[in-house]
Amino acid sequence: MTAPVPPLAYLPEILTLVAALGVFLLDTLGVRRRAAFGAWTTVFLAAAFVSVLADLGVPGLGGLATLPSSYLTAGAVGPVVFTALGLVFQAIFLSAGILVAFASLSDPDDEVGIPMFYGLLGLATLGTLLVALSADLVFLLLSVEVTGISTYVLVGYTRRDPRALEASMKFYIIGALSTATSFFGASLLYGAYHTTSLATIAQGLPPDASLALVGFGILAVGLGFKVTAVPFHMWAVDVYDGAPSTVSAFLAAGSKKMGIFAYFVVFVAVTRLFAGPQGWPLYIALGGLAVTTMTVGNILALQQKTLKRMLAYSSISQAGYMLLGIAVDTPSTLSGATLLVAAHVLMKGGAFLVVAALAQIGLGARIDDLRGLGYSHPILAGSFSVLLLSLAGIPGTFGFMGKFYIFAGAIEAGGLFILLAVVGLLNSALSVFYYARILKIVYMSDEAPAPSQESGAALHRSLTHSSQGVASPPPRGIPGLGRIAAEIRAAGAARWIAIVAAAVLTVALGIYPTPLVHAFNAAATQFWSLGY
Amino acid sequence: MEISPLTILLVLAFGGTALTFVAGRSARFVALGTAIATLVVTLGLLAMFSLSELLSYQFLQVNTWFTFMGAPGSPGLSIDYAVGIDGISLPFLLLSAVITVATVIYHWGEEKNPAGFFGLLLLTNAGLLGVFVSLDILLFFVFWEVVLIPMFFLIGHWGGPRRQYAALKFFVYTHVASVVMLVSLLAMVFLGHWPSFDFTDMTAVQGYNASIPEVAQVFLFGGLLFGFGVKLPMVPFHTWLPDAHVEAPTGGSVFLAALLLKMGGYGLIRLAFPLLSLGREALTPLVFFFAFLSIVWGAYLSLSQRDLKRLVAYSSINHMGVVLLAIGLWTQLGVMAAVLLMFAHGLVSGLLFMISGSVHHSFGTRDIPSVGGMTSRTPILSTMLMVGSLASLGLPALVSFPAEFSAFLATWESLRYLVFLPLMALVVTAAFYIWMMQRLSFGPPHGIPADAKDLPLPEMMGMVILVALIVLYGILPFLLVHIITVSPIFGACYPGGGGVCPGLP
Known about the structure:
The structure holds 2 protein chains of 2 kinds. By secondary structure, chain A is mainly alpha-helical. Chain A is 73% helix and 1% strand. In chain A, strands 1-2 form a two-stranded antiparallel sheet. Chain B is built from 19 helices and 2 strands. In chain B, strands 1-2 form a two-stranded antiparallel sheet. In chain B, α3 (89-106) packs parallel to α13 (332-363), α5 (137-158) runs antiparallel to α6 (163-191) and α12 (308-329) packs antiparallel against α17 (420-441). Chain B is globular and about 75 Å long.
């Protein structure tokens, strides 16, 4: 057994807690400006992010590490465990928090509950960080609950919009159901194992394996609500749709991914232990969950008329791909699922921020309202297109790398997993349809003046045509600096920067994912052999 | 680190693309500069290409991109940036570069968002160059998909009245095919226990794949046949093509017909046929069936078209059917004929699509019956049409003739009297081209607006480039034939070769 963990090892969690509590303190001191709260939260979350990276041993940050590296391989210390994959996930959660905190600087200044928003954002992030440290079922579920309770309130923090309040209520009730189910599953597991320590659970099957199987099944349902696995997804679309877009960005990018990691923690070892005849219900359940989640998510996304609901359903289908990584359960697919989770923070977080930007610009919520966005706001539209192409899994984007890794891992695992991969890939191809439809509306709609002739050369030739003064769309090259400035003003400066940064990172990591992939590979291998 | 000239080519193509996008009003100059620069590098490759280095790819560069972890305990598979060319890829590089230059010149007067238009054209070209030089499964797939996106936008933004529908159909249809292709390729890598994703060593890769059981090979080959066949396109998976071709702007159609269709044939020659020998042997009859179906059905559909562009589009199906037939024979002569035929079809269909674009610009319609007597009113355009049609029906001294001749010769060698089926279809092709020419070019002028002008200079220049090459390679086909036969795919055909020689015992 290792020595007690030095308190400073928890520096990222401490910094996040300071971020949250500091906001409430500033509030009581009479600070009212959004910029103050936003900057405070962003800075402390960023500090926590750097601290996590340092603990991971990122070159150049070694001096800032506060976690002795021996703990990374030591296994569980009481209810907590430090694993490289856990730290990777902490970094992912924190980047989601930073993205949202920074972008929300562009939200209106006169909103009610600004301190509440930032404080709860900090607390929700703290919960996700704790999940990434869990080595004990109770600790895990309580950490999930920290994030859960914060986000229930976060959804309705503006207190004005009835739809947001309804979403908040729905989220709360479903959350309570989810928690109760999870704890029920955990209590059955306690009955089977006589412990809640994941270290023991990962080591082998208890004498009463069937009781454990039932327990795991019920736990899968409880956590299934959190990851929006179908058929436990019904709440998600209404909540994502009703919540302020910035909050939706955090729900999709941050708190849902916490559920994915909770699945990792509980099921990675177990799936292996149940390999063999007695484990088939578990395999079928996990594989089936993955396939139904992606398929139903995609099919419903196809039919959506509003952008936000479409993004919510596509978010559900993406969860299906991640669950596939857990169902196949090899180091490759775990690494792939982690890649996809990381990519998802950028793509989905960025996409929901685009929705917020569109609302501020004054465009409607329907997909059809995006007509001509490619001409009026070229850079915003370009970034949005990149994010959508990444969600669709087009090569050259980070989203493709994640999917490729998961599907390649599934094909490598062989047997029936190839079938899972084929279903997944066909789903991915199906999803192209609704992403491309948005691109079509953004760039190709008739509203954009389009000569019926085959090309502009025809116009060139006939004077009558060109003198009619058809308002030609502005060239898509570098629009004048004035136009860019106008676009930034319209979308909100911080939000615009966050969106563009997400798009740029999506492409950069799609072309050169090497350091990230290698780090995730090592972390996933270690996590896989440890099992929790 | 050794830098291959191919890397320089790719950097040039992608860099030029990025510059074009941001060049605003001067986009066309940047685009032309980039296109010419890529052409110069390609000609340099042609000059440096060694005709005696038979058993390996040339200008090789292999760097690890990242590692796929593999099963627990395995060292992992490296995914490489691996580029290199042989005699099969070189004609495609040349074709890409030439078509890009000609198309940019043809569209010199483009006014609708020129930076976007030329940028997307160049991006397509860059992706194509990437497809033709990559020797790694994942790299190949990435470039393969890169081609798709700009074409989607080209059709959807600059296309005809039904462009949105056509663009979406093109994107989704071909993406589904790509996905099936990716599954098959990945399964091939894992079932064959490749140590890495690159296939720079033909003999070694054939060795790994020899361990894949026949049933699996049949499935994999079938998957690849579908994946590449949709691009080719092979009947009955061709339905995206008429819509995409007809709705695309002229430059888009030229790229589609001249270059994108060739990706399918190239993929079959590069990956499906040489690497999955058991699957190939089992499914060869199916390949022939699809080939004959495409030839006959393509010719039959062309007969009933009134729209010039649609006619050219359907005749492409017919021609690519002959390509598929020649590949399916899998003899050295057959493969050579297929590559030559694709090269020829690239030039000729490019020319014909430019012509139909110009016909539409000049007369406001592409409806064949409603226009006639072009020779007296627009003699240059009419001449171009004649050259294009004659080339397409395979007149000797034009590039299609040596290609089709070798294809039918190869078919005769392997299949004997079955060769009459495609030959009959060829007669039909000749018939509809001559008929089309007769109606458009000759007779009393009608349907030509009074102010119709003959070809403007840029459009003519674009066509002249293609006509020059059609004549050059028609008279001197050996310039290309010499190069095509230098490939590790023909490994065992050479003294000391270790691979499987197509068609020789």
